[in-house]
Design brief:
alpha/beta; Rossmann fold; 5 domains; Disease_R_plants; 5-stranded parallel β-sheet; 28 helices; disordered C terminus; 27 strands; Apaf_helical
Length: 914
């Protein structure tokens, strides 16, 4: 895949030619020559990549392989050059001496070596081109007839919020909706397992999630949790996910402690647990054994294969999902192919054209598989109707492969070239996992896939690419949670993921360690660790070419009881040479081997740009050698027992992102806060010192709190490009300093403040006009009600309040905000006993979440909340009264979901609603 290899390299060569123009006079011509050759090669590769899937051609395969190898060697030469001449690795007091020595000896030698390597690569590329022409066979008529699909040249999606791209549930499943709803709520006391089965892509997860999210279902059960996880995770990891959803808490517990706490949480309470992922028979039995027997409880499982019968104390209900018929296929396609940004007249023409001219083509191409229907609609919504549609169907009819494979190949080939590397990156991530959009964009940026363009930052370009993938239905956007609106999550369907993994391995994009066999890693550029049983096995191999390493495991604390259990299991298995999951080596020995693996990785993989280790233990402290990996741009060590980052991290002069969430790290070394390239810092209550460097590139601080010396008006003054700021434990002594700092943070989009006090300027400062998401937890320090909130926060979309103690007058001001779409009023957010939603207010509000436990009366006037589609009442008091003046559709829906709440609702004429 051309873009993943040559695109970033061409940018590096351009950077090298400019930055070293004077020092590399002798080699500059060779650098430019190499860059030009690679740009030509890139153009040829773009044609050859889609052709190889249509007509297998060994000669072309050899040519592609040799070109990739040459590009890899060029990247190695450039990266090694930057590594050897980078003086930022040395302490400041030695830099002057080093510069003198390096200027006369080292750099001369380094540049000479670079010159020789580039010259050799140029010659090698010339030979590759000559050999291609020399050995090229005469094309027969079949080859001439092959016309590879031309990729799109533009982004089809218009600028919009990711949330606007959320899709409605699958149509034509009403009978299955009713069957699943009945299986969940039919009043049978006996505990039941419900198996939803069907082939991959038939819509199992979509159906179950749609039912699960309905308020009437959640109100039927006292406890409910949905766990999503990679294939064949352990029962312990799955149960830990279930417990985390139930308790809404982050914790570190041993396996035995998880089982005990889960049992206590569910005991005596009617519960619903949904298991969304492939589980082995053994692990499934362990999951059921860990769940307590409670009358009326339900466990839902999704499976591709025929489900095995559960233990005798469970009743078993199977719901089989099949492909759609022609009419249902047409209905789903029409729903997904139309675009909001298109005119109603155009969308109507598309719907009519689908029904009259393309119904049979769509059904024959997709064979009624919902995944294929959605993918085809995502492709065709980027094409002009009807001019370009016929070409798509003609191309698909010419393919000899399976229907879904043909659609996937065409969807991939049609992507604009810049997007292909970004999409292919999902192959390095586990399937059936929720991935934070901001993490993905930061990794794309570190990999060199993103460049500023059209006045947009790299981050904006990345989000634009992400929106395009969502709009094309290649990845899924998860509904935003009202309590964490800034955490946009995406996922990828397993069949699409499998296609990407095949494509990625074909072009040597990433090596994946997911089984007992360890791939050859001496030439690996990227490594994804997905073997949950032997997490560290692949790290014992030297990886001198490695640029990126990724893992995504659950954090686990092993107790003595767990160790005994592991030891008994390990005796029944053949022991591997090194198996860090088997604890018969002892905890101390295990820690030593882990440290050795991490040290070896940092010593031998000097070209690393991305380190993303989730759930992989690295010890209490990162090795000092982390400071020698000078190419590093993305460093994430999360979900582990890490406590300390060494001062040597300050030598990472290219670092853009640091992520230490779900660790014990609180203090970062002083040197870290002076890295000028920093763009995003993620942690949990990280201590932000009173003085930091000139961090003008910094865009995200998540989450920070003041140090012992406190903050003053200058602490945040230089962080002028901050877009997301999350502050924790803000004392009243720091409220004034924050109020002053906010006046300079004119680019803020997301603001979260938790503390004893919150400055009134969050609603009165004109500098916050770009803020779209605001979360406040603490007493609002507001001497008087603001006169005009809407002019200070004209772009506010989502607002969450807790313990703010605002008044009715303040709520009336919020009702004037023009674009407020989501409002959460949690416990203590409101100080009066009566809450009124007046007519004409909150005209853009779509989601309202409110805790009414401290209120005695809620009054809703007719035409208030006219666009509300989701009303979630967290809790309410026994003596609560809800008065509705006039008609209100959302209240009618609420009555159908909660019978007890319905009894508290009265109309203005005093008659209860029946």
């Amino acid at each position: 895949m051309a873009e993943a290899i040559i695109g970033p390299l061409v940018g590096k060569l351009q950077e090298l030619a400019v930055s070293e123009a004077r020092a590399l006079v002798a080699v500059n011509d060779d650098i430019r020559s190499l860059r030009d050759k690679l740009m030509w090669m890139q153009a040829f590769l773009r044609d050859a990549d889609p052709r190889r899937r249509v007509v297998p051609d060994e000669a072309s395969r050899v040519w592609l392989h040799q070109t990739r190898d040459a590009a890899f060697d060029a990247e190695d030469a450039v990266d090694k050059y930057f590594l050897l001449v980078d003086l930022s690795r040395y302490p400041s007091w030695t830099r002057t001496i080093i510069r003198l020595v390096a200027g006369f000896t080292t750099q001369i030698s380094v540049r000479h070596n670079l010159s020789c390597k580039i010259e050799a690569i140029n010659t090698r590329l010339e030979n590759i081109v000559n050999n291609k022409d020399k050995y090229k066979h005469t094309e027969d008529s079949t080859d001439k007839a092959v016309v590879p699909w031309r990729a799109s040249t533009t982004i089809s999606v218009t600028p919009t919020k990711l949330d606007n791209l959320l899709q409605s549930p699958l149509v034509s499943r009403e009978d299955k909706h009713q069957e699943l709803d009945s299986a969940l709520r039919d009043g049978t006391d006996r505990q039941r397992v419900i198996s939803v089965t069907g082939q991959s892509g038939v819509g199992k997860s979509t159906l179950v999630r749609d039912i699960y999210e309905r308020l009437v279902i959640k109100n039927h059960f006292e406890m409910h949790a949905l766990a999503t996880f990679p294939p064949y995770s352990s029962a312990s990891d799955i149960l830990k996910l279930v417990l985390r959803v139930l308790t809404e808490d982050d914790f570190t517990l041993s396996r035995k402690e998880v089982h005990k706490k889960l049992h206590n949480e569910l005991k005596g309470k009617k519960y619903l647990v949904v298991i969304d992922g492939e589980v082995s028979t053994t692990e499934w039995k362990r999951i059921l054994a860990a769940l307590p027997y409670v009358v009326g409880s339900r466990v839902v499982r999704m499976s591709k294969d025929k489900p095995e019968e559960p233990p005798g104390n469970y009743e078993h209900r199977v719901i089989q999902l099949d492909r759609f018929d022609k009419n249902a296929t047409t209905q789903l396609f029409q729903q997904r192919v139309c675009r909001e940004e298109s005119s109603p007249k155009y969308n109507e023409a598309v719907r009519n054209g689908v029904g009259k001219d393309y119904q049979q083509d769509i059904f024959d191409t997709t064979e009624g598989l919902p995944l294929a229907i959605v993918l085809l609609s995502g492709l065709l919504r980027t094409k002009e109707f009807p001019i370009e549609w016929s070409a798509v169907f003609d191309h698909l009819r010419s393919k000899q492969s399976k229907r879904l494979d043909s659609i996937l190949s065409l969807c991939f080939d049609d992507l604009p070239y810049d997007l292909k590397s970004c999409f292919l990156y999902f192959a390095a991530l586990p399937t059936n996992m929720l991935i934070e959009a901001q993490d993905l964009v930061c990794m794309w940026m570190a990999e060199g896939f993103l460049r500023p363009k059209e006045g947009m930052t790299m981050e904006k370009v990345g989000y634009r690419y992400l929106k395009e993938l969502v709009a094309r239905h290649l990845i899924n956007l998860e509904p935003l949670h009202e309590h964490s609106p800034e955490e946009e999550l995406v996922s990828i369907q397993s069949k699409v993921h499998a296609f990407l993994q095949i494509e990625a391995q074909e072009v040597n994009f990433v090596e994946i360690h997911s089984s007992d066999d360890i791939p050859s890693l001496s030439t690996a550029r990227r490594l994804s660790l997905q073997n949950r049983m032997e997490k560290y096995a692949a790290l014992t191999s030297p990886m001198p070419k490695l640029r990126s390493i990724l893992s995504n495991f659950e954090k686990e604390e092993i107790s003595k009881e767990d160790e005994s259990s592991d030891e008994e299991e390990s005796k029944a298995q053949k022991s591997a040479s090194i198996c860090l999951q088997c604890s018969h080596h002892g905890t101390k020995r295990k820690e030593e081997v882990i440290k050795s693996c991490i040290w070896q990785l940092l010593q031998e993989s000097k070209f690393l740009r991305v380190i993303n280790l989730q759930g992989l233990e690295v010890g209490d402290k990162l090795p000092d050698e982390i400071g020698d990996v000078v190419h590093l741009q993305y460093l994430a060590v999360t979900s582990c027992s890490l406590r300390e980052i060494p001062p040597s991290v300050g030598r990472l002069s290219n670092l853009q992102t640091l992520d230490v969430r779900d660790t014990a790290v609180e203090n970062l070394p002083e040197q870290f806060w002076k890295i000028k390239t920093l763009r995003h810092v993620f942690g949990h209550r990280l201590i932000l010192p009173k003085r930091v460097g000139n961090l003008r590139n910094l865009q995200t601080l998540d989450t920070v709190k003041p140090d012992d010396y406190g903050w003053d008006r200058n602490t945040l003054a230089k962080l002028i490009n901050l877009r997301s700021l999350f502050i924790w434990e803000l004392s009243k002594d720091h409220v004034k300093a924050l109020a002053i700092a906010l006046k300079k943070l004119k680019h803020l989009v997301t603001l979260t403040v938790h503390g004893d006090g919150i400055p009134s300027s969050v609603f009165t400062s004109s500098s916050l006009r770009r803020v779209e998401i605001m979360e406040l937890d603490g007493m609002l320090d507001m001497p008087s009600e603001p006169e005009d909130i809407k002019s200070c926060l004209p772009n506010l979309l989502l607002l969450s309040l807790e313990k703010t103690k605002v008044s009715q007058e303040f709520i009336n001001k919020l009702a004037e905000l023009p674009f407020l779409a989501g409002l959460t009023m949690d416990l203590g957010s409101y100080k009066d006993e009566k809450l009124v939603f007046f007519a004409g207010g909150f005209h853009s509000l779509r989601r309202l979440t409110v805790d009414l436990v401290e209120l005695k009366k809620v009054e809703i006037h007719e035409s208030a909340l006219p666009r509300l589609v989701d009303l979630d009442i967290l809790d309410y008091s026994d003596d609560l009264e809800i008065e509705v003046i006039g008609e209100c559709d959302i209240i009618d829906k609420l009555c159908s979901d909660d019978e007890n709440l319905c009894k508290k609702i009265k109309r203005s004429n005093g008659l209860p609603r029946t």
